[in-house]
Amino acid sequence: MSKDWKPRTKLVHTGSRRSQYGEMAEAIFLTQGFVYDTAEQAEKRFVGIEGDEFIYARYGNPTTRMFEERIAAIEGTEDAFATASGMAAVNGALMSVCKAGDRIVAARALFGSCLYILEGILGRFGVEVVLVDGTDIDAWRAAVTPGTKAVFFETVSNPTLEVIDVKAVADIAHAAGALVMVDNVFATPMFSDVVSLGADVVIYSTTKHIDGQGRALGGVVLGTEDFIRGTLEPYMKHTGGSMSPFNAWIMLNGMATLDLRCTAMAASAWKVAQALKDDARLGKVVHPFMDDHPQQAIAKAQMSEGGTMIAFELAAGKEAAFRFLNGLKIIKMSNNLGDAKSIATHPATTTHQRLPDEQKAILGISPGLIRLSIGLEDADDLIADIRNALDAI
């Protein structure tokens, strides 16, 4: 693999392995185990894997390894570990570095399940978890004290699309000796080079843009070889959170069109946002590149495109939001995102419903908030669908 290859070439070819049959498409190695020629070879492999060797699918698999090498090449990291889901990736990254008494500082605006891991699991096992306003650099500076184990945040928050200044937070964290762990799902691997901004560990739910067609769960953690193989892998392989070979094969196929899909979806998201921004029926329309976004300058400095996500608010609240959702014809109601099909979500009653009302209010998750993931449909059709649903209110 040439380091000089452009991203689209890497997305198609990096990490490819072929059997003796010389197959063109990546093969699915649907095997849980591997045969050893001798007892001596088995003993040696369990002492330490060298090169392209495998022991057990929970530890690694040729198809899964192809995916790991391909996504690492795109992200610009030394290595990657593929997981069963995005939340397995978040859990594994955090749990593998923490012990009782450690301190984690995280942005308050996070996906509901991420907050559950931080507060409900890590907190239960004696890890001190401090939540801050992710957009307030002074709050990070005050919270990240010497000895802090790690900081964790979504580069673009779910669902309100706040944008975190990755470099500023990374500089604060590194000065205190903390790892910088980021969930980069909304920004995508194509639009945001967070490693160059100081991220040590990058996490994706591959269920989203990387698969991009609503077929399979998956996640991935990326970082240095030392972190992935020395810290994360022992935790993941013993707790059973690795990706299945079949799902890895799906992700490999999704990556071939990742740049094409994300680019087209981001262009449509911008067009939809521009069409809606002056609609009097909407209290606000949120897109990271819009002039009224509080972190527009940071978003444009960190991202080549504004992403595939939009959020907007209906001032009349939950009843109006439900009428809007029920009036959609093209856009589907679901809780996924990054799909080829456009998706509308009501966070207050689905993805973030477990949060107390006061916490939702702090995060800006109002009863009228709608999160839109823009897909590959024609943007004009999506705009018409949204306007017709607004008329239904």
CATH topology of the largest domain: Aspartate Aminotransferase, domain 2
Q: Which structural class fits the helix and strand makeup?
A: alpha/beta
Largest sheet features? 7 strands, mixed
Fraction in beta strands: 5-15%
Q: Helical region count?
A: 15
Q: Please trace the helix and strand order, writing H or E for each element.
A: HHHEHEHEHEHEHEEHHHEHEHEEHEH
Overall 3D shape? globular
Overall strand count: 12
Low-confidence stretches: none
Mean pLDDT: 95
Q: Rounded to an integer, what's the Rg over CA atoms?
A: 21 Å
Strand order of the largest sheet: 1-7-6-5-4-2-3
SSE layout and pairing:
Blueprint: H1 7-13, H2 39-47, H3 62-75, E1 79-83, H4 86-95, E2 103-107, H5 112-122, E3 128-132, H6 137-143, E4 150-154, H7 166-175, E5 179-183, H8 188-191, E6 201-205, E7 219-223, H9 225-239, H10 245-255, H11 258-276, E8 284-286, H12 296-302, E9 309-313, H13 318-327, E10 332-333, E11 343-345, H14 357-363, E12 369-373, H15 379-392
Parallel strand pairs: 2-3, 2-4, 4-5, 5-6, 10-11
Antiparallel strand pairs: 1-7, 6-7, 8-9, 9-12, 11-12
